[in-house]
TrEMBL record, chain A:
The lineage of its organism: Bacteria, Bacillati, Actinomycetota, Actinomycetes, Kitasatosporales. Residues 11-45 form the ChsH2 rubredoxin-like zinc ribbon domain. It comes from Streptomyces asoensis. Transmembrane segments: none annotated. It comes from the Bacteria. This is Benzoylsuccinyl-CoA thiolase.
TrEMBL record, chain B:
This is Lipid-transfer protein. Coiled coil: none annotated. Pfam families: Thiolase_C_1 (PF22691), Thiolase_N (PF00108). Residues 276-392 form the Thiolase C-terminal domain. Residues 6-111 form the Thiolase N-terminal domain.
Amino acid sequence: MVEGWFTGDGDDFRLLGTRCSACGSVFFPREDTFCRNPGCQGGALAEVPLSRRGRVWSYTDSRYRPPSPYVTEPELPWEPYTLIAVELAAERIVVLGQAVPGITVADLAVGMEVEAVPGVLHEDARTTWTTWRWRPTGVTR
Amino acid sequence: MTAEVAVLGAGMHPWGKWGRSFVEYGVAAARAALVDAGVDWRDVDAIVGADTVRGGYPGYVAGATFARALGWQGARVTSVYAACASGAQAIGAARAQILAGLADVVLVVGADAAPKGFFRPAGGDRPDDPDWLRFRVLGATNPTYFGLYARRRMAVHGDTPEDFAQVKVKNSAMGALNPNARYRKRVTAQEVAASAVVADPLRLLDICATSDGGAALVLSSLDFARRHGVARPVRISAVSTVSPRYPTTVLDLPDIATDSAAAVEPAGEPFRASIAHAAYEEAGVGPDDLSLAEVYDLSTALELQWYEDLGLCAEGEAAKLLREGATAPGGRIPVNPSGGLSSFGEAVPAQAIAQVCEVTWQLRGQAGERQVAGARVAVTANQGLFGHGSAVVAVR
Protein backbone atom coordinates (compact mmCIF):
# COMPACT_ATOMS: atom_id res chain seq x y z
CA MET A 1 0.00 0.00 0.00
CA VAL A 2 2.80 2.42 0.90
CA GLU A 3 5.63 0.49 -0.63
CA GLY A 4 9.05 2.05 -0.18
CA TRP A 5 8.04 4.60 2.48
CA PHE A 6 10.24 3.05 5.18
CA THR A 7 12.86 0.35 5.72
CA GLY A 8 14.76 -1.54 8.40
CA ASP A 9 14.15 -2.69 11.96
CA GLY A 10 15.04 -1.49 15.42
CA ASP A 11 17.75 1.17 15.41
CA ASP A 12 18.08 0.81 11.64
CA PHE A 13 14.47 1.83 10.95
CA ARG A 14 14.23 4.82 8.61
CA LEU A 15 11.54 6.66 6.71
CA LEU A 16 12.42 6.76 3.01
CA GLY A 17 11.95 9.81 0.83
CA THR A 18 13.42 10.89 -2.48
CA ARG A 19 15.83 13.69 -3.34
CA CYS A 20 16.05 15.59 -6.64
CA SER A 21 19.55 15.28 -8.07
CA ALA A 22 19.24 18.69 -9.74
CA CYS A 23 18.05 20.97 -6.91
CA GLY A 24 18.37 18.85 -3.75
CA SER A 25 14.66 19.06 -2.80
CA VAL A 26 13.55 16.20 -0.55
CA PHE A 27 10.11 14.59 -0.77
CA PHE A 28 8.09 12.50 1.66
CA PRO A 29 5.98 10.58 0.86
CA ARG A 30 8.40 9.69 -1.91
CA GLU A 31 7.96 11.54 -5.19
CA ASP A 32 9.22 9.31 -8.01
CA THR A 33 7.79 11.09 -11.05
CA PHE A 34 8.74 14.77 -11.01
CA CYS A 35 10.48 17.34 -8.84
CA ARG A 36 7.86 19.75 -7.46
CA ASN A 37 10.21 22.71 -7.11
CA PRO A 38 8.86 25.23 -9.66
CA GLY A 39 12.35 26.59 -10.25
CA CYS A 40 13.82 23.18 -11.10
CA GLN A 41 13.93 21.69 -14.58
CA GLY A 42 13.70 18.28 -12.93
CA GLY A 43 16.44 15.84 -12.13
CA ALA A 44 16.55 12.16 -11.31
CA LEU A 45 14.82 11.37 -8.02
CA ALA A 46 16.92 9.12 -5.80
CA GLU A 47 15.76 7.29 -2.70
CA VAL A 48 17.09 8.82 0.52
CA PRO A 49 16.63 7.81 4.18
CA LEU A 50 15.26 10.60 6.40
CA SER A 51 16.59 11.60 9.81
CA ARG A 52 15.49 9.12 12.43
CA ARG A 53 14.90 11.77 15.10
CA GLY A 54 13.03 15.03 15.09
CA ARG A 55 11.12 17.47 17.31
CA VAL A 56 7.37 17.60 17.91
CA TRP A 57 5.80 20.41 15.82
CA SER A 58 2.33 19.67 17.15
CA TYR A 59 0.13 16.77 18.23
CA THR A 60 -3.48 15.76 18.68
CA ASP A 61 -5.60 12.64 18.92
CA SER A 62 -8.72 11.09 17.45
CA ARG A 63 -11.35 10.49 20.11
CA TYR A 64 -13.88 9.25 17.58
CA ARG A 65 -13.48 6.31 15.24
CA PRO A 66 -12.37 7.60 11.83
CA PRO A 67 -14.30 6.51 8.72
CA SER A 68 -13.00 4.03 6.17
CA PRO A 69 -10.58 3.61 4.49
CA TYR A 70 -9.03 3.61 7.99
CA VAL A 71 -9.40 0.02 9.15
CA THR A 72 -10.75 -0.67 12.64
CA GLU A 73 -12.64 -3.49 14.32
CA PRO A 74 -16.15 -2.07 14.70
CA GLU A 75 -17.06 -4.68 17.32
CA LEU A 76 -14.25 -3.50 19.62
CA PRO A 77 -14.49 -0.34 21.73
CA TRP A 78 -12.74 2.60 20.09
CA GLU A 79 -9.25 3.28 21.46
CA PRO A 80 -8.11 6.81 20.51
CA TYR A 81 -4.68 7.07 18.93
CA THR A 82 -2.34 10.03 19.05
CA LEU A 83 -1.04 11.82 15.97
CA ILE A 84 2.28 13.68 16.03
CA ALA A 85 3.64 16.12 13.43
CA VAL A 86 7.42 15.98 13.63
CA GLU A 87 9.94 18.50 12.32
CA LEU A 88 13.11 16.92 10.90
CA ALA A 89 15.89 19.52 11.13
CA ALA A 90 18.21 18.32 8.37
CA GLU A 91 15.43 17.92 5.80
CA ARG A 92 13.43 20.96 7.04
CA ILE A 93 10.24 18.95 6.67
CA VAL A 94 7.31 18.15 8.98
CA VAL A 95 6.08 14.54 8.84
CA LEU A 96 2.80 13.38 10.39
CA GLY A 97 2.50 9.95 11.97
CA GLN A 98 0.74 8.03 14.69
CA ALA A 99 2.43 7.79 18.07
CA VAL A 100 3.35 4.32 19.34
CA PRO A 101 0.44 2.69 21.21
CA GLY A 102 0.21 3.85 24.82
CA ILE A 103 1.48 7.39 24.18
CA THR A 104 -1.28 9.93 24.79
CA VAL A 105 -1.39 13.70 24.35
CA ALA A 106 -0.62 14.00 28.08
CA ASP A 107 2.82 12.49 27.41
CA LEU A 108 3.76 15.06 24.75
CA ALA A 109 4.92 18.65 24.41
CA VAL A 110 5.79 20.77 21.37
CA GLY A 111 9.57 20.67 20.90
CA MET A 112 10.03 17.24 22.51
CA GLU A 113 12.40 14.82 20.73
CA VAL A 114 10.84 11.76 19.08
CA GLU A 115 12.14 8.99 16.85
CA ALA A 116 10.68 6.91 14.04
CA VAL A 117 10.06 3.25 14.87
CA PRO A 118 8.29 0.44 13.00
CA GLY A 119 4.70 -0.38 13.86
CA VAL A 120 1.69 -2.41 12.78
CA LEU A 121 -1.21 -0.49 11.28
CA HIS A 122 -3.55 -3.43 10.95
CA GLU A 123 -3.48 -7.19 10.48
CA ASP A 124 -5.89 -9.86 9.42
CA ALA A 125 -5.51 -13.59 8.90
CA ARG A 126 -3.58 -13.13 5.66
CA THR A 127 -1.82 -9.76 5.81
CA THR A 128 0.04 -7.52 8.24
CA TRP A 129 0.12 -3.85 7.21
CA THR A 130 3.24 -2.27 8.68
CA THR A 131 3.74 1.46 9.17
CA TRP A 132 5.89 4.01 10.95
CA ARG A 133 5.22 5.43 14.41
CA TRP A 134 6.69 8.29 16.40
CA ARG A 135 8.00 7.47 19.88
CA PRO A 136 9.44 9.94 22.40
CA THR A 137 13.16 9.23 22.77
CA GLY A 138 13.97 7.46 26.01
CA VAL A 139 10.70 5.52 25.90
CA THR A 140 11.36 1.84 25.26
CA ARG A 141 7.89 0.36 24.99
CA MET B 1 -13.03 50.83 -12.15
CA THR B 2 -13.39 48.48 -15.07
CA ALA B 3 -12.29 45.41 -13.10
CA GLU B 4 -15.40 45.45 -10.92
CA VAL B 5 -18.63 43.51 -11.29
CA ALA B 6 -21.96 44.20 -9.61
CA VAL B 7 -23.76 41.89 -7.19
CA LEU B 8 -27.37 42.28 -8.30
CA GLY B 9 -28.84 39.49 -6.26
CA ALA B 10 -28.08 37.14 -3.37
CA GLY B 11 -30.06 34.14 -2.15
CA MET B 12 -29.77 31.15 0.14
CA HIS B 13 -31.52 27.97 1.12
CA PRO B 14 -31.32 27.69 4.92
CA TRP B 15 -28.55 25.38 6.21
CA GLY B 16 -29.48 22.24 8.12
CA LYS B 17 -29.89 18.49 7.67
CA TRP B 18 -32.88 18.53 5.41
CA GLY B 19 -32.44 15.15 3.73
CA ARG B 20 -33.16 16.41 0.22
CA SER B 21 -31.12 16.62 -2.99
CA PHE B 22 -28.50 19.32 -3.44
CA VAL B 23 -30.40 20.32 -6.60
CA GLU B 24 -33.38 21.46 -4.53
CA TYR B 25 -31.20 23.63 -2.30
CA GLY B 26 -29.38 25.14 -5.27
CA VAL B 27 -32.54 25.91 -7.21
CA ALA B 28 -34.19 27.49 -4.14
CA ALA B 29 -31.11 29.68 -3.61
CA ALA B 30 -30.96 30.55 -7.33
CA ARG B 31 -34.62 31.55 -7.48
CA ALA B 32 -34.16 33.71 -4.36
CA ALA B 33 -31.12 35.42 -5.90
CA LEU B 34 -32.97 36.03 -9.19
CA VAL B 35 -35.94 37.56 -7.33
CA ASP B 36 -33.54 39.69 -5.28
CA ALA B 37 -31.90 40.88 -8.50
CA GLY B 38 -35.17 41.44 -10.33
CA VAL B 39 -33.80 39.40 -13.24
CA ASP B 40 -35.77 36.77 -15.17
CA TRP B 41 -33.89 33.46 -15.49
CA ARG B 42 -34.44 33.56 -19.26
CA ASP B 43 -32.43 36.81 -19.41
CA VAL B 44 -29.37 35.28 -17.72
CA ASP B 45 -26.44 34.88 -20.17
CA ALA B 46 -24.43 32.30 -18.25
CA ILE B 47 -24.65 29.99 -15.24
CA VAL B 48 -21.70 28.76 -13.18
CA GLY B 49 -22.22 25.85 -10.79
CA ALA B 50 -19.87 24.98 -7.92
CA ASP B 51 -19.62 21.19 -7.96
CA THR B 52 -20.38 18.74 -5.21
CA VAL B 53 -18.68 15.36 -5.26
CA ARG B 54 -21.80 13.99 -3.61
CA GLY B 55 -25.10 13.49 -5.37
CA GLY B 56 -23.68 11.27 -8.10
CA TYR B 57 -22.88 12.34 -11.66
CA PRO B 58 -25.12 15.44 -11.67
CA GLY B 59 -23.05 16.78 -8.75
CA TYR B 60 -19.96 16.87 -10.97
CA VAL B 61 -21.79 18.91 -13.60
CA ALA B 62 -23.51 21.28 -11.21
CA GLY B 63 -23.86 24.16 -13.69
CA ALA B 64 -25.84 22.09 -16.16
CA THR B 65 -27.78 20.37 -13.35
CA PHE B 66 -29.05 23.66 -11.98
CA ALA B 67 -29.69 25.00 -15.51
CA ARG B 68 -31.81 21.96 -16.36
CA ALA B 69 -33.74 22.22 -13.11
CA LEU B 70 -34.41 25.93 -13.68
CA GLY B 71 -35.37 25.15 -17.30
CA TRP B 72 -32.98 24.95 -20.25
CA GLN B 73 -32.78 28.42 -21.79
CA GLY B 74 -29.55 28.29 -23.78
CA ALA B 75 -27.19 29.98 -21.31
CA ARG B 76 -23.43 29.46 -21.44
CA VAL B 77 -22.72 26.83 -18.75
CA THR B 78 -19.69 26.20 -16.52
CA SER B 79 -19.03 23.79 -13.63
CA VAL B 80 -16.07 24.13 -11.26
CA TYR B 81 -14.62 22.12 -8.40
CA ALA B 82 -12.06 23.43 -5.93
CA ALA B 83 -13.02 21.83 -2.61
CA CYS B 84 -13.90 24.56 -0.06
CA ALA B 85 -12.88 27.22 -2.60
CA SER B 86 -15.36 25.92 -5.22
CA GLY B 87 -17.76 28.79 -4.64
CA ALA B 88 -15.02 31.39 -5.03
CA GLN B 89 -13.81 29.79 -8.25
CA ALA B 90 -17.41 29.86 -9.51
CA ILE B 91 -17.57 33.57 -8.68
CA GLY B 92 -14.17 34.02 -10.33
CA ALA B 93 -15.31 32.27 -13.51
CA ALA B 94 -18.49 34.36 -13.66
CA ARG B 95 -16.54 37.56 -13.10
CA ALA B 96 -14.02 36.68 -15.81
CA GLN B 97 -16.83 36.10 -18.33
CA ILE B 98 -18.40 39.45 -17.44
CA LEU B 99 -15.12 41.38 -17.57
CA ALA B 100 -14.21 39.69 -20.88
CA GLY B 101 -17.51 40.82 -22.36
CA LEU B 102 -18.74 37.26 -22.87
CA ALA B 103 -21.76 37.77 -20.61
CA ASP B 104 -23.67 40.67 -19.09
CA VAL B 105 -25.43 38.80 -16.31
CA VAL B 106 -24.38 35.51 -14.72
CA LEU B 107 -26.00 33.25 -12.13
CA VAL B 108 -23.60 31.55 -9.67
CA VAL B 109 -24.93 28.60 -7.65
CA GLY B 110 -23.45 26.22 -5.06
CA ALA B 111 -25.31 23.62 -3.02
CA ASP B 112 -24.62 20.41 -1.14
CA ALA B 113 -26.27 17.60 0.76
CA ALA B 114 -23.44 16.60 3.09
CA PRO B 115 -23.08 13.11 4.54
CA LYS B 116 -23.39 12.58 8.28
CA GLY B 117 -20.25 12.59 10.39
CA PHE B 118 -16.68 12.97 9.17
CA PHE B 119 -15.96 13.89 5.59
CA ARG B 120 -14.21 10.94 3.93
CA PRO B 121 -12.53 10.31 0.60
CA ALA B 122 -14.34 8.78 -2.37
CA GLY B 123 -14.54 4.97 -2.23
CA GLY B 124 -12.26 2.26 -3.55
CA ASP B 125 -8.57 1.46 -2.98
CA ARG B 126 -6.77 4.52 -4.29
CA PRO B 127 -3.23 4.79 -2.92
CA ASP B 128 -2.39 7.40 -5.57
CA ASP B 129 -4.77 9.85 -3.84
CA PRO B 130 -3.26 11.84 -0.91
CA ASP B 131 -6.74 12.29 0.56
CA TRP B 132 -7.31 8.52 0.59
CA LEU B 133 -3.82 7.90 1.99
CA ARG B 134 -4.14 10.17 5.01
CA PHE B 135 -7.26 8.30 6.10
CA ARG B 136 -5.95 4.81 5.31
CA VAL B 137 -2.44 5.18 6.73
CA LEU B 138 -2.99 7.64 9.59
CA GLY B 139 -6.74 7.89 10.23
CA ALA B 140 -6.17 11.65 9.98
CA THR B 141 -9.66 13.19 9.78
CA ASN B 142 -10.20 16.90 9.14
CA PRO B 143 -10.64 17.64 12.88
CA THR B 144 -7.23 16.10 13.64
CA TYR B 145 -5.61 18.73 11.41
CA PHE B 146 -7.62 21.44 13.21
CA GLY B 147 -6.38 19.94 16.49
CA LEU B 148 -2.76 20.12 15.31
CA TYR B 149 -3.14 23.81 14.39
CA ALA B 150 -4.86 24.60 17.69
CA ARG B 151 -2.17 22.88 19.77
CA ARG B 152 0.54 24.64 17.78
CA ARG B 153 -1.08 28.02 18.53
CA MET B 154 -1.18 27.15 22.23
CA ALA B 155 2.52 26.25 22.19
CA VAL B 156 3.74 29.18 20.08
CA HIS B 157 1.37 32.01 20.99
CA GLY B 158 0.00 30.98 24.37
CA ASP B 159 -3.63 30.70 23.22
CA THR B 160 -5.86 28.73 25.59
CA PRO B 161 -8.89 26.47 25.09
CA GLU B 162 -10.85 29.24 26.82
CA ASP B 163 -9.82 31.65 24.05
CA PHE B 164 -11.00 29.14 21.46
CA ALA B 165 -14.34 28.77 23.27
CA GLN B 166 -14.87 32.54 23.13
CA VAL B 167 -14.89 32.34 19.32
CA LYS B 168 -17.83 29.92 19.54
CA VAL B 169 -19.57 32.14 22.08
CA LYS B 170 -19.21 35.13 19.73
CA ASN B 171 -20.26 33.33 16.54
CA SER B 172 -23.20 31.49 18.08
CA ALA B 173 -24.59 34.80 19.34
CA MET B 174 -24.57 36.03 15.72
CA GLY B 175 -25.92 32.77 14.32
CA ALA B 176 -28.84 33.03 16.71
CA LEU B 177 -29.88 36.16 14.78
CA ASN B 178 -29.53 34.62 11.30
CA PRO B 179 -32.61 32.92 9.80
CA ASN B 180 -30.40 31.00 7.32
CA ALA B 181 -28.16 29.49 10.01
CA ARG B 182 -28.54 25.87 11.07
CA TYR B 183 -27.70 26.49 14.75
CA ARG B 184 -29.66 29.35 16.23
CA LYS B 185 -28.89 28.99 19.90
CA ARG B 186 -26.39 31.03 21.90
CA VAL B 187 -23.63 28.86 23.34
CA THR B 188 -21.77 29.58 26.59
CA ALA B 189 -18.09 28.96 27.33
CA GLN B 190 -19.21 26.38 29.90
CA GLU B 191 -21.14 24.49 27.23
CA VAL B 192 -18.08 24.42 24.98
CA ALA B 193 -15.91 23.17 27.87
CA ALA B 194 -18.49 20.50 28.71
CA SER B 195 -18.68 19.14 25.15
CA ALA B 196 -16.73 16.01 24.21
CA VAL B 197 -13.12 16.24 23.03
CA VAL B 198 -12.95 15.38 19.33
CA ALA B 199 -9.28 16.04 18.54
CA ASP B 200 -7.31 17.37 21.51
CA PRO B 201 -7.43 20.26 22.40
CA LEU B 202 -10.62 20.84 20.37
CA ARG B 203 -14.08 19.87 21.50
CA LEU B 204 -17.29 19.18 19.64
CA LEU B 205 -18.44 22.80 19.93
CA ASP B 206 -15.06 24.06 18.63
CA ILE B 207 -15.55 22.24 15.32
CA CYS B 208 -18.09 22.93 12.60
CA ALA B 209 -20.61 20.28 11.58
CA THR B 210 -21.42 19.01 8.10
CA SER B 211 -24.68 20.39 6.73
CA ASP B 212 -26.95 20.73 3.75
CA GLY B 213 -27.41 24.16 2.23
CA GLY B 214 -27.34 26.33 -0.87
CA ALA B 215 -26.29 29.82 -1.88
CA ALA B 216 -26.49 31.82 -5.12
CA LEU B 217 -25.52 35.19 -6.56
CA VAL B 218 -26.55 37.14 -9.64
CA LEU B 219 -23.52 39.04 -10.94
CA SER B 220 -23.50 41.55 -13.78
CA SER B 221 -21.44 44.18 -15.51
CA LEU B 222 -21.68 47.67 -13.99
CA ASP B 223 -23.28 48.82 -17.24
CA PHE B 224 -25.99 46.18 -16.99
CA ALA B 225 -26.62 47.17 -13.36
CA ARG B 226 -27.01 50.82 -14.38
CA ARG B 227 -29.37 49.95 -17.25
CA HIS B 228 -31.25 47.73 -14.80
CA GLY B 229 -31.80 50.74 -12.54
CA VAL B 230 -29.25 49.92 -9.85
CA ALA B 231 -27.06 53.01 -9.62
CA ARG B 232 -25.00 52.00 -6.61
CA PRO B 233 -24.70 48.20 -6.44
CA VAL B 234 -22.47 46.20 -4.14
CA ARG B 235 -19.37 45.57 -6.27
CA ILE B 236 -16.87 42.73 -6.24
CA SER B 237 -13.45 44.29 -6.67
CA ALA B 238 -11.24 41.23 -6.16
CA VAL B 239 -11.44 37.45 -6.33
CA SER B 240 -8.31 35.67 -5.10
CA THR B 241 -7.95 31.99 -5.99
CA VAL B 242 -4.16 31.72 -5.59
CA SER B 243 -2.27 28.49 -4.95
CA PRO B 244 0.46 28.07 -2.34
CA ARG B 245 4.10 28.77 -3.19
CA TYR B 246 6.70 25.99 -2.95
CA PRO B 247 7.82 25.04 -0.38
CA THR B 248 4.75 25.06 1.88
CA THR B 249 6.00 24.64 5.43
CA VAL B 250 2.70 24.42 7.32
CA LEU B 251 1.14 20.96 7.35
CA ASP B 252 -2.14 21.26 5.44
CA LEU B 253 -5.10 19.07 4.52
CA PRO B 254 -4.77 16.45 3.09
CA ASP B 255 -0.97 16.15 3.27
CA ILE B 256 1.03 13.64 5.32
CA ALA B 257 4.09 15.92 5.28
CA THR B 258 5.02 19.48 4.36
CA ASP B 259 7.30 20.32 1.48
CA SER B 260 10.95 20.27 2.49
CA ALA B 261 12.61 23.68 2.78
CA ALA B 262 16.06 22.08 2.40
CA ALA B 263 16.65 23.33 -1.14
CA VAL B 264 14.41 26.41 -1.52
CA GLU B 265 13.90 29.08 1.12
CA PRO B 266 10.17 29.50 1.90
CA ALA B 267 8.41 32.76 0.96
CA GLY B 268 8.06 35.04 3.97
CA GLU B 269 4.28 34.95 3.66
CA PRO B 270 2.45 31.73 4.56
CA PHE B 271 -0.28 30.44 2.24
CA ARG B 272 -3.33 31.78 4.06
CA ALA B 273 -1.78 35.25 4.29
CA SER B 274 -0.95 35.16 0.57
CA ILE B 275 -4.61 34.44 -0.26
CA ALA B 276 -5.68 37.62 1.53
CA HIS B 277 -2.74 39.61 0.21
CA ALA B 278 -3.64 38.81 -3.41
CA ALA B 279 -7.22 39.99 -2.81
CA TYR B 280 -6.13 43.23 -1.12
CA GLU B 281 -3.65 43.93 -3.92
CA GLU B 282 -6.26 43.41 -6.63
CA ALA B 283 -8.91 45.52 -4.86
CA GLY B 284 -6.49 48.25 -3.81
CA VAL B 285 -7.56 48.02 -0.17
CA GLY B 286 -5.86 46.92 3.05
CA PRO B 287 -6.93 45.47 6.39
CA ASP B 288 -7.45 48.96 7.81
CA ASP B 289 -10.16 49.67 5.21
CA LEU B 290 -12.33 46.70 6.24
CA SER B 291 -15.72 47.03 7.88
CA LEU B 292 -16.13 43.29 8.39
CA ALA B 293 -14.74 39.89 7.43
CA GLU B 294 -16.29 36.47 6.83
CA VAL B 295 -13.72 33.70 7.37
CA TYR B 296 -13.74 29.91 7.46
CA ASP B 297 -14.04 29.00 11.13
CA LEU B 298 -13.80 25.26 10.51
CA SER B 299 -12.55 25.32 14.07
CA THR B 300 -12.61 28.11 16.62
CA ALA B 301 -8.79 28.14 16.67
CA LEU B 302 -8.68 28.49 12.89
CA GLU B 303 -10.74 31.70 13.07
CA LEU B 304 -8.01 33.18 15.28
CA GLN B 305 -5.42 32.15 12.71
CA TRP B 306 -7.31 34.07 10.03
CA TYR B 307 -7.18 37.30 12.09
CA GLU B 308 -3.42 37.22 11.69
CA ASP B 309 -3.40 36.03 8.10
CA LEU B 310 -5.87 38.77 7.09
CA GLY B 311 -3.62 41.33 8.78
CA LEU B 312 -6.27 42.33 11.35
CA CYS B 313 -3.51 42.07 13.96
CA ALA B 314 0.13 41.05 14.23
CA GLU B 315 1.20 37.40 14.41
CA GLY B 316 0.37 35.91 17.79
CA GLU B 317 -2.03 38.73 18.70
CA ALA B 318 -5.30 37.10 17.60
CA ALA B 319 -6.48 35.98 21.02
CA LYS B 320 -5.78 39.48 22.33
CA LEU B 321 -7.85 40.98 19.48
CA LEU B 322 -10.71 38.62 20.34
CA ARG B 323 -10.51 39.36 24.08
CA GLU B 324 -10.63 43.09 23.35
CA GLY B 325 -13.92 42.56 21.51
CA ALA B 326 -12.53 43.99 18.25
CA THR B 327 -13.97 41.10 16.21
CA ALA B 328 -17.37 41.07 17.95
CA PRO B 329 -20.40 43.09 16.82
CA GLY B 330 -19.73 46.75 17.50
CA GLY B 331 -15.98 46.13 17.54
CA ARG B 332 -13.37 47.63 15.22
CA ILE B 333 -13.59 44.73 12.73
CA PRO B 334 -16.44 42.28 13.29
CA VAL B 335 -15.60 38.78 12.02
CA ASN B 336 -18.27 36.30 10.96
CA PRO B 337 -21.34 38.44 11.64
CA SER B 338 -23.29 35.71 9.77
CA GLY B 339 -22.50 33.32 12.61
CA GLY B 340 -19.83 31.61 10.51
CA LEU B 341 -19.50 27.92 9.74
CA SER B 342 -19.84 27.48 13.46
CA SER B 343 -23.52 28.36 13.05
CA PHE B 344 -24.02 27.14 9.48
CA GLY B 345 -21.96 23.94 9.19
CA GLU B 346 -20.20 22.90 6.02
CA ALA B 347 -22.05 22.65 2.71
CA VAL B 348 -18.81 22.76 0.76
CA PRO B 349 -19.65 24.21 -2.70
CA ALA B 350 -22.06 26.73 -1.18
CA GLN B 351 -19.83 28.15 1.53
CA ALA B 352 -17.72 30.71 -0.29
CA ILE B 353 -20.87 31.90 -2.12
CA ALA B 354 -22.75 32.16 1.18
CA GLN B 355 -19.94 34.34 2.54
CA VAL B 356 -20.45 36.76 -0.36
CA CYS B 357 -24.24 36.69 0.19
CA GLU B 358 -23.66 37.78 3.78
CA VAL B 359 -21.27 40.60 2.91
CA THR B 360 -23.70 41.74 0.18
CA TRP B 361 -26.53 42.05 2.71
CA GLN B 362 -24.17 43.75 5.16
CA LEU B 363 -22.94 46.27 2.57
CA ARG B 364 -26.53 47.03 1.54
CA GLY B 365 -27.54 47.52 5.18
CA GLN B 366 -30.01 44.61 4.94
CA ALA B 367 -28.53 42.29 7.57
CA GLY B 368 -31.21 42.98 10.16
CA GLU B 369 -30.27 42.42 13.78
CA ARG B 370 -26.72 41.35 12.86
CA GLN B 371 -26.02 44.46 10.75
CA VAL B 372 -22.51 45.95 11.05
CA ALA B 373 -23.15 49.71 11.16
CA GLY B 374 -21.93 51.66 8.14
CA ALA B 375 -20.34 48.68 6.38
CA ARG B 376 -18.40 49.80 3.27
CA VAL B 377 -15.66 47.24 2.57
CA ALA B 378 -15.73 43.51 3.32
CA VAL B 379 -13.43 40.57 2.75
CA THR B 380 -14.21 36.85 2.72
CA ALA B 381 -11.57 34.15 3.06
CA ASN B 382 -11.17 30.42 3.00
CA GLN B 383 -8.74 27.68 2.13
CA GLY B 384 -9.67 24.47 0.34
CA LEU B 385 -8.21 20.98 0.28
CA PHE B 386 -5.32 20.44 -2.17
CA GLY B 387 -3.98 24.03 -2.08
CA HIS B 388 -7.06 25.99 -3.07
CA GLY B 389 -7.17 29.58 -1.84
CA SER B 390 -10.17 31.89 -1.86
CA ALA B 391 -10.83 35.47 -0.87
CA VAL B 392 -13.30 38.01 -2.22
CA VAL B 393 -13.33 41.76 -1.61
CA ALA B 394 -16.72 43.50 -1.92
CA VAL B 395 -17.32 47.22 -1.58
CA ARG B 396 -20.10 49.75 -1.70
